[in-house]
Design goal:
By secondary structure, the protein is α+β, with helices and mostly antiparallel strands. The protein has a domain of 152 residues: Sandwich (Jelly Rolls), CATH 2.60.120. The protein is built from 4 helices and 13 strands.
């Protein structure tokens, strides 16, 4: 039983330890100096007034779904956006999807529906070729604008969110380079937890296997009686018989 339980514990123990090590190594190797995993998209473009994503996180009713999940994950998002031309005055903002949908409802724009190998795929939405400047809107949770590379930092929360890239004046024909960065404060904690739990399970499994193997080996040498293959003991001679005359006669051995 000890060997069986040890083997059953060994597999998940090694798996947890390997997962924790992989997470720790990945965070150390694949992140930048600020701890962000970076992902660069191919250039985002639209003949309309904006490039937008929809329902970035959780789709809920009240606007803040499962806040404890995001508190634990502690996810930070970083967007770096640079206009295709050095003189482009670019805008990037994050807001509730409902506000963005209302803002872009009558304007032509492109919605990112998926990203395939760094290449965004769009759904084109028809409408007018002009819109009020995004700088005049007050519903943005975070935003950045200007010439050159613009950086936006956002602490993720539950709800439906949209990311929007536009020209700062709201004019049509948008073209920009986008780099996405994400980091989670839970990665280190999860890595340490997996390594610790995996080490405990693996150590317990090894101890059980060793104890079980030793117990089995020692029980193999203990016997309750003579082995059926053992040779019978040699016959023992009978004690000498002394007759009344004093002569000692030694009988022959009895088989």
């Amino acid at each position: 039983m000890a060997i069986i339980v040890g083997c059953l514990l060994l597999v998940p123990g090694l798996g947890m330890a390997a997962g924790g090590a992989a997470a720790a190594i990945g965070q150390a190797v694949a992140t930048d100096d600020d701890g962000y995993f970076r992902f660069t998209l191919d250039r985002v473009e639209s003949t309309g007034v904006a490039v937008a994503t929809t329902e970035l996180w959780l789709d809920d009713v009240e606007g803040d779904a499962a806040p404890w999940v995001f508190d634990f994950l502690d996810v930070d998002l970083r967007l770096r956006v640079d206009g295709a031309a050095s003189t482009d005055d670019v805008f990037v903002g994050i807001a509730r999807s409902a506000d963005v949908e209302q803002y872009l409802a009558a304007a032509a724009h492109s919605e990112v529906i998926e990203v395939d190998d760094r290449t965004p795929r769009y759904e084109q939405v028809g409408g007018t070729a002009s819109i009020e400047s995004p700088l005049e809107q007050d519903f943005w949770t975070v935003s950045a604008s200007g010439t050159g590379e613009q950086q936006l930092d956002w602490e993720a929360r539950g709800g439906r969110w949209s990311v929007v890239v536009m020209n700062a004046d709201g004019s049509p024909v948008v073209s920009a380079d986008v780099e996405i960065g994400a980091r989670s404060g839970a990665v280190t904690a999860v890595s340490i937890g997996l390594l610790a739990l995996g080490g405990i399970l693996t150590s317990a499994a090894v101890v059980l296997i060793v104890v079980g193997a030793r117990g089995r080996r020692s029980s193999g040498h203990d016997t309750d009686g003579p082995s059926p293959l053992a040779s019978p003991p040699p016959p023992r001679p009978s004690p000498p018989i002394v007759d009344p005359a004093g002569d000692e006669r030694r009988p022959t051995a009895v088989g």
